[in-house]
Amino acid sequence: MKQYGVNELRKMFLDFFESKGHLVMKSFSLVPHNDKSLLLINAGMAPLKPYFTGAEIPPRRRVATCQKCIRTGDIENVGKTARHGTFFEMLGNFSFGDYFKHEAIAWSWEFLTEVVGLDPNRLYPSVYLEDDEAFDIWNQEIGIPAERIFRFGKEDNFWEHGAGPCGPCSEIYYDRGEQYGCGKPGCTVGCDCDRYIEVWNNVFTQFENDGEGHYETLKQKNIDTGMGLERLAVVVQEVDSIFDVDTIQALRNKVCEFAHTQYKQDENKDVSIRLITDHIRSATFMISDGIMPTNEGRGYVLRRLIRRAARHGRLLGIQGAFLSKLSEEVIRGSRDGYPELEEKKEFIFKVLSEEEERFNKTIDQGLNILASMESKMEKAGVKTLAGTDAFTLYDTYGFPLDLTKEILEEKGYSIDEDGFKAAMEEQRTKARNAREITNYSGAEATVYDEIDPAVTTEFVGYDSLCCDSKITVLVVEKETAGEVSDGEKAPAAEKEITDAVSDGEKVTVFVEKTPFYATMGGQEGDTGVIRMADAEIVVEDTIKLLGGKVGHVGRVTKGMFKTGDVVTLEVDAAKRADTCKNHSATHLLQKALKTVLGSHVEQKGSLVTPDRLRFDFAHFAPMTAEEIAKTEALVNEQIAAALPVETKIMNIEDAKKTGAMALFGEKYADDVRVVSMGEFSKELCGGTHVANTSAITTFKILSESGIAAGVRRIEALTGSGVFAYYHGVEQQLAEAAKAVKATPATLIDRLHHLTGELKAAQSEVESLKSRLAKDALGDVMDNVREVDGVKLLTAKLEGVDMNGLRDLGDQLKEKLGEGVIVLASVCDGKVSLLSMATDGAQKLGAHAGNLIKGIASCVGGGGGGRPNMAQAGGKNPAGMDDALAKAEEVLKGQL
């Protein structure tokens, strides 16, 4: 048997099923689309759910993919065994109501035995206990003896996930040989040891589960198969584990090179080597799909993967940042199947480096917190760290439990792991309770799911803002009474499909074709009207739904509408024109940012409305005023250049070759729309745009801010929005000038004049306060007395604040020469105390800070300071005399 590489096996599988009439689709993004039940795509069928349920019509009845997947359910075991990993590639062939068991079983056998060349005598199929049909196909059509076909129960060979489509499955196992077995007499297919490894799973989706255990046969039966690419490579290459197959082994060896060690020499090191090898694969692919490290959702999964890898790098003794260098090897090994890795590599490296640096700061912070916890435990005589404290380290500081445990064990402490798990479960429960109700596909369940999947809407709004079309579906929002806490009735909206709507009702209208652009790609949906002779709907929003449907959301303002009516749809032309200006300006802005800040800039999100534009982008530092000015000027230059805006429909690969920018993680069709603005900007975009950049008129950046780690946001205006903004600024300027009795033209001179007057007045006030303080003080030199050879001057004043006391203190020091000064003043009912000690007095033992501490209690306050000067405050003016009297006693004790 030839030992094919991972990249070869991927191509062989896809080519094989293409020859069987399958459409080979590229891997979908790891970010689920319209599926709130998943954080990350975890199986080949997950992105195809709408095709299985019939919510969307598939591009072909037969589809094959190699889908990148991430599963983190057993992340704690990754590294500890060679079995577990978070990232894998899932090979799959799918049938949506086309072929069924006969073809699926025959092709899986043909591929494994004839294409890959596995020994048929080492392959063992399994079937569901009650699936005689599959058993007979294996036995009579494929020719597998009955004793080599295994029947298993629901737990092993029946796929279902709550209510929804489900069915039996048939798996194919490969016998790796006795050396991988457990040695027990009954070791056979289904044993937990590593001898018999499952390589293929055919799921026959033929039933509908109502959630109550009742099953009905589906009209459209589907095939959903899955085969782990890495696991197939283990079998084909005859190696021990996924960490030994060609591409992953090259990555594993790179980890060893960085750590100056070798694999399989030290089991503790092997754990770290495997963990880093797996986690850097997941992190690289996640970042390539636009996922950023954050503290929640899929961003937290990424952060945890990166930090665990970095922490294990420390355990291996790897010096400095290393993850971005490892990522280079991931890209080198996988770019044949995933060219986007090569395209996004600089961005991937940047994100990894930033997060690794952030982790190093976090881990040190966590160590300080842990040290504080250890100190408290020691004082309390406790030997076990509370589970809540361990969870705080884990949740707030990204501190892995095993690291906390390891550090504490070295010092004879342990962790309340049950308490930690309880805190973890409490957090998970909160998260589960907060999860939205979803349908089988994971999308929020709505009335729109009931619409016939064959209903679609053609968009004609690139060329026209008005057209006639037929109503295909009407949805009305009914208001029903719902209880609220105080017993009053509150309206609760319920939507239902209807045949007619009338005046005053809130509706969603579906038509065969529309000029209304639906909210998509950051561009807000169009508004406008739908009308007939005596009826009208004001459209407030336009929404995009599954299966190419466009819903026009609004309210009937007069008359009635029925399904089948031919209506006129008219977009608000002024708002569309302003939206086009803002959208085209967004394209110019992205290119300008790449020019000014660097090629690492990537769009992370946008919002385009008639009033403004918002653009989120990857950048790791706040923009300087100079960078903002350069960016704004560059956009305005392109507007003034009157660049033609051209749109072409191109093949996706051809479009990328032209340098057209694409969005991270976006799934594009084979043919895409390329929007070019002269030679300056070229992007894949389905939105609406101006015909020439000169139509934008002008562009103004209002703000630049950070919204997440490594993500910045620009808010900006174009055209009439800019003029309105400057009009507002002019009004504010006029009001400001009026307030200081000036005109806008003389405002600056007037402000300079007023500032000068204010400074002069403040100086005069300070001078008067100083003179008043001196007058209040009188001739205090008569109060000087000696305390054990040190002169002590005390004085009581009124109406002098702390600043005044300090000025007086400095003046009195000059008169006194050497000694100690203590001043007390009451101002607005509050006491201020000041003490000063000269160098000579300090040498004899005087300490101003300790002296203040000793007398501050007399005035109901506290304070302190340096040996030469200290101050205090208090709330009891009646104690001022006692404080000054006590000063002599305290000073005497210091000398």
Which descriptors apply to this entry?
39% helix, alpha+beta, 27% strand, 24 helices, 9-stranded mixed β-sheet
Low-confidence regions = 480-492
Strand content: 25-35%
Q: Helicity, in percent? A: 25-40%
Number of helices: 24
**CA distance, first residue to last residue:** 96 Å
What is the molecular shape?
globular
Structural class: alpha+beta
Using only CA atoms, what is the Rg?
Answer: 37 Å
Instruction: Return the average pLDDT rounded to an integer.
Output: 89
Let me know the number of strands.
35
Biggest sheet statistics: 9 strands, mixed
Written description of the protein model:
The protein has 895 residues and is an alpha+beta fold. Helices cover 39% and strands 27% of the residues. It has 24 helices and 35 strands. The strands form eight sheets. Strands 1, 2, 3, 4, 5, 6, 7, 8 and 9 form a nine-stranded mixed beta sheet that branches. The chain has a six-stranded antiparallel β-barrel with strand order 13-16-20-19-18-22. A six-stranded mixed beta sheet has the order 30-31-32-33-35-34, sandwiched between helices. Helix 4 (132-142) links the parallel strand 4 and strand 5 (150-152). The longest helix is centred in the middle third of the chain and has 36 residues, at 345-380. Mean pLDDT is 89; it is low at 480-492.
